Structure formats: structure tokens, C-alpha cells
């Protein structure tokens, strides 16, 4: 379990994340939603030690983040940010192999190779595994990054806007993969997501932020609610039940 | 590009390098133990060959490391103020420590080279506009500023000729006893091999490195220290060799991608081959005289550099 207590991040005088306490429960998809500038990505980045916090505590499996050793932490929690998309020329296979870096420092053992193979076939990238990243479409590239995360084999997987720049087909594909990571492989997934309907259809738990504060959190059913969403986004919402999914209409 | 072919080419060029020169030496002389000619081999030809190979490997690997950690294809010791800073270091050692040993001079050049490169990397961190061509331009500008400081003090202390003769890349003066400092770069190259995977991860960026549990800053610093050390060693013993660290890694990565572990051997071999080729060319073009290697490398290198620039702009 990841526990966040009274977390604060300030830039100058402005608190981007303001006294946030929440937790990410194992075996679930937790979605962080909220308008631009709500502090979702900052929160995720702090949990995954990409940026330092100003105040507060983050416990991963009961141990404070600063007490974790870098390599051990890399075997426990992985983060994929939109911005860490790279411009170096690696093949898919090479990229996925680097997912094993925390375990073998790049010198792959048989076991590592097995993980790499599994991750590649799990993401259905076998036939293009020797293609370079810059030759791929956006959807393929996103799948390659997720394959790397799968090879990294961490209990917790954090993704910052994994659907950015993807069309509907690929978005659905990615969300189904995240779902199966949780349901089949027992992983814990936390995502920052903008499309409220994707959050509604695929996540178990939703944390809604605004201006650096948590407005409300709870099971998906409680949050996908006209009143709650209107208070977060300041626009009118209509919520319909379609085939057991709650779909928000806000256009 | 097969390693095997590169290796064979290197051996052929090495052999021809040994047997090219004003004094004619043939294989028979070695077989018959012609003392004079074997002396020439041991004192001049072989040291020259070894220093070219080491310098070629060292400079091209330095370039590879720089491009990997700065995430820019056009950054190299020449375009990141490393060499100009080392030059300033040489001047300082000439002014303040006139009688000191080459090793001491090298250390001073190294300190300057490290500081200059760090300065460049710090500027790089602060620049928001990360255009591929803009970054090396900044490096060259910084280099020129440092170079003008060097020139100013060189004039003031009447060392202009001294400093330019120091830094004209030239292997004709490489004889036994004057190049051995270069051997220090061999362990550095080995460290670069060991760190190859880490440099690749660092090349994926700070966030990516953190995700994989890599200490990004430490790897960056190790990279800069290796590059600055090798550059200063080469500058002190051989002089300035432009473009080598720029074009060789670029040619290799076009074919092989950026996985450093995969392409570091190719880069090393191709660097040695290219430098050796330029040296042989410089020795036969106005035989029995010599054109200095920085000229041949400069001309061939700048043409390839221009080609890469135009090509880089298209993609």
C-alpha cells in the first residue's frame, strides 16, 4: 500500500500540492482526476521520487520514501511520465531490456531475458521488436514503454496521462491492458487521466483534486456523480447509465 | 558494419602506417635485425601508431559519452568547450608552472577541461530551447569566449606561438618518451565500457533514470570526468584533433542506434581507423614532408560534419 500523509509541494509561494493525504490500495486501479493545474502529476511525481517534496510523508509498504534504497525502490515502483518519452534511438527490445536494469544493471541473465520476452509478447510487440522507437506510431510506442514497465516487474505502476495523444482504439487497448495487469497479474496501478469516461469505465477508485487539494475520493461510483464532478470542473454534467457504465455528458 | 571488418581494416592500416616514412623500412629489415631500422620502428613509428590508436579510440568514445549524456548528436569535446578549456589550462600551466612535468600540466589542463564542461552542462540544463543545432552553437560560443581569454593572456605573456605549437594536433613529434601519458586513457576507456549501460539509461533522461533506480547526477559526473580527462590527455600529448569525437559516434549511431553497449566497440575501432587513415594521408600527400593531422582531420571531418548537419536538419 502507498500512503501519503500531509504532502506539500510549493513553487515559490504557491502550493501546487497542498496538504494532501490519501492512499493507493493494492490490487486496484486508482485514477487521479481534476482540472489542469490541480497537482495530479506533481503528486504522482513525488510519490515516485521524481521530484522532492517540501513537507509530509510518503510510505511505500510502510517504509518512508527517503529510507528506500534507489535500486530496491526501482523494483517496487515504476513510473511512466508523458514527458519522459525519449528521443534516443533504441529498438523496442532494447528499451524493454532496460526495464530489467534495476535487477541486472544491464547485463541480462537468462531470467531477465525471460521477463523481457514475456513483456514483449504480453504487449503483442513480438513481430516489431527490432524496430527503432522513432519508426513506431504513437500507440505502438506507448505499448513499448508499458512493456518496459512490465519487464521492470514492479508491484506498483504509476502512469502520468498514459492516453495522451492516443486515438480511441489505442486508448481502449491501453486501458484494457492496465485492467488485466491488475486483474491477472495482481499489480497496483495509479494513473493521472483527463478523460473522465475512461476513468469511470476502468478504474476502481478515484481521487479528485482541485487547486492542490483533494476535493473528494472514493470508489468510482461515488465520484462519478453529477454534484461531485460539477464542483470539480465548474461545468454542467449529465450522467447516464449505459450498459452498466456511467457515462458523463458534458459537451 | 561488422566488428570483424573494422578490426581487419585497423590491422592493415596499422601495418602500412609502420612501413610508411622517409626512411624506407621493409619486412626484411626486421627479419634480418637491421638495428638502425628497428630503432626507428621502436623509437618513432610504433609510438606514433600506438598514440594514434589510443587518441582515436579515446576521442571518439569521449564524443559518444558526451552525445549520450547531453542527449544531443552534435555535442562533443570540440563543441562543448572541453577542448578550449583544456587549452586555457595549458596556458595557465605555461605561465604559472613553467618547469613542471607534462603530468602536472596535464592535471591543470584536466581541471580546466572539467570545469569548462561542467559549465557547459549547467548552461544546457537551464536552456529551455533544446534545438539540436542551437545547443552545440552555445557550446562553440562558450568555447570561443574561453579561447579569446586564452589568446589575450597568451599575447600578454608572449606565448602565442608556444600555445599554438602545443595545440596543433600533430603526431610527427610523437617519439618514445613523449607519448606515454596517453596510456592513462586506457583505464578510462575501460571504465567507459563498464558504464556503457548506465550512460544509455542516463541518455533517456533524468526521470527515466530515476525510475530505473540510476543515480543520474553521479553517472553524468563520471561521464564528464572521463571525457575531460581523455581530452586533456590527448591535448597535452598530441594536440587538438577537431571533429573526431563528433563524426565517428554519429556515423556509428546512424547504423546501430543509441544503445551504447552495442556500439561502443564499433565507435572505438572506427575512431582509430579514421585517425590512422588521416595520418597516413597526411604523410603521403606531400611526401617526404607531412601535413599535420589536425588539418587532414579538419578538412575531412568538417565535410562529414556538414553532411551530417544537413542530414540532421531534414529528419
Automatic annotation (TrEMBL), chain A:
GO terms for molecular function: ATP binding. It comes from the Bacteria. This is ATP-binding cassette domain-containing protein. InterPro entries: AAA+_ATPase, ABC_transporter-like_ATP-bd, Siderophore_ABC-ATPase. It holds the Pfam family ABC_tran. It comes from Tissierella simiarum. It is found in: Cell membrane. Keywords: ATP-binding, Cell membrane, Ion transport, Iron, Iron transport, Membrane, Nucleotide-binding, Transport. It is a peripheral membrane protein. The keyword Protein transport does not apply. Residues 2-236 form the ABC transporter domain.
From TrEMBL, chain B:
It comes from Tissierella simiarum. The chain crosses the membrane at residues 6-28, 49-69, 106-127, 133-155, 181-199, 219-252, 264-286, 292-310. InterPro entries: ABC_transptr_permease_BtuC (IPR000522). The lineage of its organism: Bacteria, Bacillati, Bacillota, Tissierellia, Tissierellales. The keyword Transmembrane applies. It comes from the Bacteria. This is ABC transporter permease. CDD domains: TM_ABC_iron-siderophores_like. Signal peptide: none annotated. PANTHER family: FERRIC ENTEROBACTIN TRANSPORT SYSTEM PERMEASE PROTEIN (PTHR30472), PETROBACTIN IMPORT SYSTEM PERMEASE PROTEIN YCLN (PTHR30472:SF27). The keyword Transmembrane helix applies. Keywords: Membrane, Transmembrane, Transmembrane helix.
Amino acid at each position: 500500500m502507498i500512503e501519503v500523509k500531509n504532502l506539500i509541494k510549493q513553487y515559490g509561494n504557491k502550493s501546487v500540492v497542498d496538504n494532501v493525504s490519501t492512499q493507493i490500495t493494492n490490487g486496484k486501479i486508482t485514477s487521479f482526476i481534476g482540472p489542469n493545474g490541480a497537482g495530479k502529476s506533481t503528486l504522482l511525481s513525488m510519490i515516485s521520487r521524481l521530484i522532492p517534496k517540501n513537507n509530509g510523508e510518503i510510505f511505500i509498504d510502510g517504509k518512508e520514501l527517503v529510507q528506500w534504497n534507489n535500486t530496491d525502490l526501482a523494483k517496487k515502483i515504476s513510473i511512466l511520465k508523458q514527458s519522459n518519452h525519449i528521443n534516443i534511438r533504441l529498438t523496442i527490445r532494447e528499451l524493454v531490456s532496460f526495464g530489467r536494469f534495476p535487477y541486472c544493471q544491464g547485463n541480462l541473465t537468462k531470467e531477465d531475458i525471460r521477463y523481457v520476452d514475456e513483456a514483449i509478447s504480453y504487449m503483442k510487440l513480438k513481430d516489431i521488436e527490432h524496430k527503432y522507437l522513432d519508426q513506431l506510431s504513437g500507440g505502438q510506442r506507448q505499448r513499448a514503454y508499458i512493456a518496459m514497465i512490465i519487464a521492470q516487474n514492479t508491484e506498483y505502476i504509476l502512469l502520468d496521462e498514459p492516453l495522451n495523444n492516443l486515438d480511441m482504439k489505442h486508448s481502449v487497448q491501453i486501458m484494457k491492458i492496465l485492467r488485466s495487469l491488475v486483474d491477472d497479474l495482481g499489480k497496483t496501478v495509479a494513473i493521472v487521466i483527463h478523460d473522465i469516461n475512461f476513468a469511470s469505465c476502468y478504474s476502481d477508485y478515484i481521487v479528485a483534486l482541485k487547486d492542490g487539494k483533494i476535493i473528494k475520493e472514493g470508489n468510482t461510483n461515488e465520484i462519478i456523480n453529477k454534484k461531485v464532478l460539477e464542483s470539480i470542473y465548474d461545468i454542467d454534467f449529465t450522467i447516464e447509465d449505459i450498459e452498466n457504465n456511467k457515462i458523463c455528458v458534458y459537451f | 558494419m561488422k566488428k570483424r571488418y573494422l578490426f581487419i581494416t585497423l590491422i592493415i592500416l596499422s601495418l602500412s602506417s609502420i612501413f610508411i616514412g622517409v626512411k624506407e623500412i621493409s619486412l626484411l629489415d626486421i627479419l634480418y635485425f637491421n638495428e638502425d631500422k628497428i630503432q626507428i620502428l621502436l623509437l618513432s613509428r610504433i609510438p606514433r601508431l600506438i598514440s594514434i590508436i589510443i587518441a582515436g579510440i579515446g576521442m571518439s568514445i569521449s564524443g559518444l559519452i558526451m552525445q549520450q549524456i547531453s542527449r544531443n548528436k552534435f555535442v562533443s569535446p570540440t563543441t562543448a568547450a572541453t577542448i578550449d578549456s583544456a587549452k586555457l589550462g595549458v596556458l595557465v600551466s605555461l605561465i604559472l608552472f613553467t618547469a613542471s612535468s607534462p603530468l602536472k600540466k596535464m592535471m591543470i589542463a584536466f581541471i580546466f577541461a572539467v570545469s569548462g564542461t561542467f559549465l557547459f552542462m549547467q548552461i544546457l540544463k537551464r536552456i529551455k530551447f533544446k534545438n539540436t543545432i542551437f545547443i552545440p552553437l552555445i557550446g562553440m560560443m562558450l568555447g570561443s569566449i574561453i579561447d579569446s581569454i586564452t589568446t589575450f593572456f597568451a599575447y600578454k605573456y608572449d606565448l602565442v606561438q608556444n600555445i599554438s605549437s602545443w595545440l596543433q594536433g600533430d603526431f610527427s613529434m610523437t617519439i618514445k618518451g613523449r607519448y606515454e601519458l596517453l596510456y592513462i586513457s586506457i583505464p578510462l576507456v575501460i571504465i567507459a565500457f563498464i558504464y556503457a549501460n548506465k550512460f544509455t539509461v542516463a541518455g533517456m533522461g533524468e526521470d527515466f533514470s530515476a525510475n530505473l533506480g540510476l543515480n543520474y547526477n553521479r553517472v553524468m559526473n563520471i561521464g564528464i570526468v572521463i571525457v575531460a580527462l581523455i581530452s586533456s590527455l590527448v591535448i597535452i600529448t598530441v594536440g587538438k584533433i577537431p571533429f573526431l569525437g563528433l563524426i565517428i559516434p554519429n556515423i556509428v549511431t546512424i547504423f546501430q542506434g543509441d544503445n551504447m553497449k552495442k556500439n561502443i566497440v564499433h565507435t572505438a575501432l572506427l575512431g582509430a581507423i579514421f585517425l590512422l587513415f588521416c595520418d597516413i594521408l597526411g604523410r603521403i600527400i606531400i611526401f617526404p614532408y607531412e601535413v599535420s593531422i589536425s588539418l587532414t582531420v579538419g578538412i575531412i571531418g568538417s565535410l562529414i560534419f556538414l553532411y551530417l548537419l544537413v542530414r540532421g536538419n531534414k529528419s
